[in-house]
Amino acid sequence: MEQATGGDRxxxxxxGLSSAEVAERVSAGQTNAFTAxxxxxxxxxxxxxxxxxxxxxxxACFIVLLLLGRWQDALFGVAALSNAVIGCVQEFRAKxxxxxxxxxxxxxxxxxxxxxxAEIAPPEVVRDDVLVLRAGDQIAADAVVVxxxxxxxxxxxxxxxxxxxxxxIDDEVLSGSIVVAGEGAARVAxxxxxxxxxxxxxxxxxxxLVSSELRTSIDRVLRWVGWGIGPIGLLVLxxxxxxxGGWVQAWQQGTWxxxxxxxxxxxxxxxxxxxxxxxxxxFAVGAARLAGQKVLVNELPAVEGLARVxxxxxxxxxxxxxxxxxxxxxxxxxxxxxxTDVLAWYGAAPDANATAQCLxxxxxxxxxxxxxxxxxxxxARKWSAVSFDGGAEGTWVLGxxxxxxxxxxxxxxxELGAAVTRLASSGRRTLVLGHAxxxxxxxxxxxxxxxxxxxxxxxxxxxxxxxxxxxxALAYFRDQGVGVRVISGDNxxxxxxxxxxxxxxxDEGYDARRLPDDDGELGxxxxxxxxxxxxxxxxxxxMVTALQARGHVVAMTGDGVNDALAIKTADIGIAMNSGxxxxxxxxxxxxxxxxFSHLPSVVAExxxxxxxxxxxxxxxxxxxxxxxxxxxxxxxLVMEFPFLPRQLSITDGLTIGIPxxxxxxxxxxxxxxxxxxxxxxxxxxxxxxxxxxxxxxYTRVAMQxxxxxxxxxxxxxxxxxxxxIWVLTVLSRPVTRVKVVVIGAMFIALTAxxxxxxxxxxxxxQDPGDDGATLVTLVVVVALGAIEAVRFAHRRFVRRSLAxxxxxxxxxxxxxxxxxxxxxxxxxxxxxxxLLNTALGIVVLLARYSVTPDLVLPVSLVGAATVLLGLLTIxxxxxxxxxxxxxxxxxxxxxxxxxxxxxxxxALTELDPVLVVALVAAVAVIAAMWVPARARRWFRGxxxxxxxxxxxxx
Length: 954
Prior knowledge:
The radius of gyration is 36 Å and the shape is elongated. A hairpin with a 7-residue loop joins strand 11 and strand 12. The chain is of the alpha/beta class. Helix content is 56%, strand content 13%. It is built from 37 helices and 21 strands. Residues 1-9, 200-209, 805-816 and 941-954 have low confidence and may be disordered. Strands 8-21-20-19-9-16-18-17 form an 8-stranded mixed beta sheet, with helices on both faces. Strands 1, 2, 3, 4, 5, 6 and 7 form a 7-stranded antiparallel beta sheet that branches. It has a 6-stranded antiparallel beta sheet with strand order 10-15-14-13-12-11, sandwiched between helices. The two termini are 69 Å apart.
């Protein structure tokens, strides 16, 4: 149906569409329905997890191996597919939760149909519907204004202009813009895909890449690997063909296939496939967890972003206070006939805001008043004015005292100033009712200017209930070194009183009318003061921008339409669900139940994501570094690659892929510090080089010893498995019960692969022989020692990084108590004993090839358990050095089990002299930890500040 025009326009604008006309337009498809995902679309999720460059490389390698008939070496393809499936499933689950929450909390549109106003979902709006617009509404569809009463619209999110735009009849209002003042009606002109509302809603609600150091850093690593994988692949292929006899001979004799298999093993090891997966899963699971706490995450990386916030700006009303305002009292200052009837009209007005509505009960309508001229309330002006026909003559003004009467409202020497100052200092919100003898003129209405001669009639006070959880949440931010700025449009004294009530140490609030125009000077004021009152919406945005210009990561919370611009400008915008639809649309987080106490949980979730991904990234990046190092070294030295792809699948899955999944989801309260990639690479590069050089040296020596190819590969796999599981243990510190279970399970699985004949045959694992066993043991011990040195240096580097943040970590300060000498000796023995037992365990494990068949299983189990306990002992030594009582208990258990294992090994093998030394050392460590009184006092828990800081750096 064509848009109504001409003579029927007035009737349509007054009555709106009839039910029949609405049905006709719905059947014609002229609705505002438009599918806009509240998170990433299904296709985007699949594309991000499946159709990637590296998945393409892995897929090509997988197909090549299948064509060569080497399906046993194509296990990495199954692992890559599993990673993609897991990533998709996790994100789909998070998407479903977010979509459900978004649907339940979608904004509403107010329309006039059959002569009555009704609220409907924005998709139900049809062409020619009459939208009824009031302050705080987000316009649902493009429309033309048909009536206005000082209607003002904020189009900043469309045009970038922050000033509100006056709208007159026949002006166009675009969907996505926000009504900030006045009221009016507009007939819908464009709906559906044509309407800007749907484009804006999709942009505001869908998954977006907010500033994410994790994603940026990981993408950078992927680009580096992507650039290097081509030339390195050619280098490796050339070396493997040379080893096979040269390109011509290898092709003629068919040995080229093994060269291709070796090259594929080298290339697939270089790709950190799981790192992208773990990041996506961590974001998705974090968003799903927050959804369970009634926090809607519009953009998944926001859970990381809030972990980086160091200043949080809070709107008082609806954030520190419950947002429920009630009338307190009216202090009459002068006699003006009919002033109570005027207050009754303000309370009953159709567009009355929450404050004005509080006047309905104490001032019921007695004498109806008819409006002659009116200037509606504006959050920028903070007052409204009205003149009536008949009774209540003159002009009546209701607004903030300072905005109506200026300095007179804060002068304690005057009657008005004394009353306002006294009442505001008690934490009450104050409004003033003023009166001028002359009515409003048309020019004053157009210019939004008050008439001359306004005098104060009464000061009205309102009280707000402080949120019971606000003080606890603010204390959390204070302890975590996050600065708090309270920004409100209310009287500075009122805001300061509320701030003191929730635990902030402030005197009087800063009056925003005195804020400097220069952004640099504004930033300096924001650094010095905590509470600001009489802040306009534009000033809120400027304050956020000024803090960002000084290097701060800013979060902004609020619920009113006047907060929308600042919320969108902030790094992380947080809206209350009770707030305006426009505010929720531009926020990245929405507190659905309005509980301010959720913010610490959101911060903790973000910190868990970024800290765990940093830990996990070191696992994957270490693998990428040693795989790249091996490819380059073996390519330059023209040596046969020492692994089959199936053998690398063992170490990748059991030392990186599976444990990383658990580590990425464990609790972690480490405070965010910039420099994620730098810290990760500071461990991954040297650790990866240690592994690459160790395996290169092993291969060269093994070749000189005359080990067969299968024996050499078995030894290399053992070395990589043990060193990789040790890297996992090192990066899991401090080792908790859950981490012990994860690491232990992975090691047991590795032991089963090396012990069970069917698995050994499948993975082509053979006895490396006496010389091979000795070489493997020496290389493992040296590599573990080098990894410990790398981790020691890395921890010192991290501590230096953390030292520059708030005087430590999260404001933590203090010096480490002096450690008793006997405990130091025990720690040294723990490290030495752990390395010794690890080496002994390897020797015992390899002894299974030289004992009688009935002893193979017990020797294998004793050897594997000894290696595992040796590794866990060294891990416990790190926590022991910080005085952890849990570490002392766990170490005692480990050492007691080791004593039993050493006794069993003495009965099964001929390693008595060395085992006796290890047994004595274990008993000595237990005695050092439990017997001396000074040692017992050292283990008094993990609560000291210095140990907490050390726990973060670990």
